[in-house]
Amino acid sequence: MSKVYLRNYTFRNIDKMFFCAEEQTQYGKGAITPFYHNPDKKIKLFQGDALSILKKAPDNCIDMIFADPPYFGNQSGLIIKRNDGHADTFDTQKAQWAYSKSINYQFEFHYTWLKEAQRILKKGSTIWVTGTYHSIGIVNVVLQDLGFKILNDIILHKRNAPPNFKGSCFRAVTETMLWAKKDSSGKTKFNYKAMKELNGGVQMKNIWEYWAEKNPFRHPATKQPIVLETAILAGNSN
Ligand SMILES: C[S@@+](CC[C@H](N)C(=O)[O-])C[C@H]1O[C@@H](n2cnc3c(N)ncnc32)[C@H](O)[C@@H]1O
Description:
- By secondary structure, the chain is α+β, with helices and mostly antiparallel strands.
- It has helices at about 15, 20-25, 50-55, 105-120, 135-145, 190-200, 225-235; strands at about 5, 10, 35-40, 45, 60-65, 80, 90, 120-130, 150-160, 175-180, 205-210.
- It has one domain: Vaccinia Virus protein VP39 (Rossmann fold).
- About 25% of the residues lie in helices and about 25% in strands.
- The strands form four sheets. The chain has a five-stranded mixed beta sheet, sandwiched between helices.
- The chain is globular, with a radius of gyration of 19 Å.
- S-adenosylmethionine binds near residues 51, 69, 97 and 223.
């Protein structure tokens, strides 16, 4: 594939865009094996505990990070029966990682992985971290305390988000995505031109609105491809 069409935008450097830093660098002791490898597109996927996998990557080797870490917001363990066309049921009891934890636990969790993420990012490179109100405040504080430079808080507005099933508070239709640079030094990797082009020639705002497609994965936190595609395009300077 030589061209990728993202709405009206044509990305011509697709090989460069999907270049894996891992191809260039040797992992140290305890090398990990990808569970998916597509040599044509130079894509490798690794699966495991981020707290240990990130430690195996060398310093300053990653062009961009997108993370959707646990929100630690689940309190009830309900099995939600849905009829909004997204998925039939979502069993929150299976997602033990999502259960609410102490504030101390959450700080330690986010400090641990974000410290490693910062170490492996290249100079000027950025990280995108999504979250709900349960988690994003803590992530924001940790990012700042580690010396990341927060560039934007992007509001993801899912226009067809599901209702509040219990009718106990407002219907939640947004998530926040923090976009931050490794630190204050260096030129930020930002494909401003592509973002403007994507937005019909007008500077793109920090509110991204979209209609979610039917979610085949039965997980309400699944991110839409358009969100990831836009972030990947934005975080790679042309
Ligand atoms: C908010 S959900 C994000 C779901 C994601 N957007 C998706 O569509 O699969 C948080 C994810 O973090 C994963 N997770 C929790 N603890 C982890 C850890 N220590 N290392 C790697 N992943 C972890 C969970 O399995 C879950 O898939």
